[in-house]
Amino acid sequence: MRTYEVRTYGCQMNVHDSERLRGLLEDAGYVRAPEGDEADVVVFNTCAVRENADNKLYGNLGHLAPVKARKPGMQIAVGGCLAQKDKASIVRKAPWVDVVFGTHNIGSLPVLLERARIAEESQVEILESLEVFPSTLPTRRESAYSAWVSVSVGCNNTCTFCIVPALRGREKDRRPGDVLAEVETLVAEGVLEVTLLGQNVNSYGVEFGDRYAFSKLLRACGEIDGLERVRFTSPHPRDFTADVIEAMAETPNVMPSLHMPLQSGSDRVLKAMRRSYRQDRYLKIIEDVRAAMPDAAITTDIIVGFPGETEEDFQGTLDVVRQARFAGAFTFQYSKRPGTPAESMEDQVPRDVVQERYERLVALQDDVAWDENKLTVGRSLEVLIAEGEGRKDAATHRLSGRAADNRLVHFAIPEGVEKPRPGDMATVEVTYAAPHHLVADVFGAVRRTRAGDAWERAQDAPSSPSGVMLGMPTLGAKPMEPAVGGCQVG
Ligand code: SF4
């Protein structure tokens, strides 16, 4: 039996695509390589958004060349956004790569591996557009209790800092019936939280001519028995309509959290970014969300130092941060991305200026988030217990999980209480707030769930999921990895 390993870089869309790649490989008879073993097939699911993504890929491929030379039959495949961008040049630069496949044909991977093996030569297959919606492919999910469900792929916007439309193509919407059927199947398997995934969920339905399709989808998720938590990412302020806010507020299992990219608080910069909303529109959506859901936690993405950004523009961003009261933000320092319109814009902001603004933004956002988090002290929360997330606090044996509003919560289980499993729910009271997490040391109760049962079953299964909770990562500054991500999905 041949073993495989999938290495994933980039956003949630890639994380989810990797679940499909694992499903495809297991369907074709491969088994997951045990941790630390050299796999027979190594698949790189790449990202073209992160800074130096290509250097990192070729560095990693270089490390594998001697491994492959001494391991007969080993195969290396490269897929994802960088493969879509660089195509055959990958095998020119790294001729020991066996397969290159793009974002539109992940389903071809097993066939391409087989073809490369028989023909004893590299196979490169890149399609220019999507033929089959990838969510019809088998999926090997990483979490037994929380799942991504694609509602669309691609994006019809043309944000000038973003490479996603060039690499993922125009938006393709999945039929609501197919989305709901997948959610129902997941719930039957024990999943209790789903995150609906699309580059721009608010334009969902544009392909089949229903501008209310996304709010209808949220309400339909509300009808699914056993589905306790529904989230979505990413929304786009341009397409955000009142019916979505109403559906969020009126559907009990749609969680009171919203991650809505701001990118800049300056109208002038938003125009240069080709983001067709303005500061007042963004703030109005937040006002409406807060009016409908007073306890909603709102988070965002912000880019600092976009070409031409002046101090006055930057002050506009700080103003929005103060007014919007974000519970968290992914903050990015702008840097050029090959192939994007912004790459050749004049007035690139000097690095030291970007760095200094970035530090001011992070300091302000941390203060705001901390103040917002302090408002939760004394509140009772139900936390979905996660594994592999957040701080491991050996001294207090704290566990971690996510509240309904997606805040990260660390909490202690008193002695004598049976240890809950990932996927179970705990009711706790918040005793302390930090800028990026809460501590809840007053314990209420544990609710054992079907999701916890599913997690336990998965531990015994061969090639079991790692149990890693693939929820939204801890929000906060990312000073070590300057990147321009666009939407969190992109
Ligand atoms: S940033 Fe988001 S909305 Fe803009 S082009 Fe990229 S994926 Fe589309």
From TrEMBL:
Cofactor requirements of the protein: [4Fe-4S] cluster
Note accompanying the cofactor annotation: Binds 2 [4Fe-4S] clusters. One cluster is coordinated with 3 cysteines and an exchangeable S-adenosyl-L-methionine.
Chain positions recorded as [4Fe-4S] cluster 1 binding sites: 11, 47, 81
Domain MTTase N-terminal: start-end pairs: 2-118
Classification via PROSITE patterns: MTTASE_N, MTTASE_RADICAL, RADICAL_SAM, TRAM
Oligomer and partners: Monomer.
Domain TRAM: 374-444
Protein known as: tRNA-2-methylthio-N(6)-dimethylallyladenosine synthase
Function per UniProt: Catalyzes the methylthiolation of N6-(dimethylallyl)adenosine (i(6)A), leading to the formation of 2-methylthio-N6-(dimethylallyl)adenosine (ms(2)i(6)A) at position 37 in tRNAs that read codons beginning with uridine.
Matching PANTHER family: CDK5 REGULATORY SUBUNIT-ASSOCIATED PROTEIN 1, MITOCHONDRIAL TRNA METHYLTHIOTRANSFERASE CDK5RAP1
SUPFAM superfamilies in the cross-refs: Radical SAM enzymes
Native organism taxonomy: Bacteria, Bacillati, Actinomycetota, Actinomycetes, Propionibacteriales
Reaction(s) catalysed by this chain's protein: N(6)-dimethylallyladenosine(37) in tRNA + (sulfur carrier)-SH + AH2 + 2 S-adenosyl-L-methionine = 2-methylsulfanyl-N(6)-dimethylallyladenosine(37) in tRNA + (sulfur carrier)-H + 5'-deoxyadenosine + L-methionine + A + S-adenosyl-L-homocysteine + 2 H(+)
A GO cellular component annotation in the UniProt record: cytosol
EC number in record: 2.8.4.3
Molecular function GO terms recorded: 4 iron, 4 sulfur cluster binding; metal ion binding; tRNA-2-methylthio-N(6)-dimethylallyladenosine(37) synthase activity
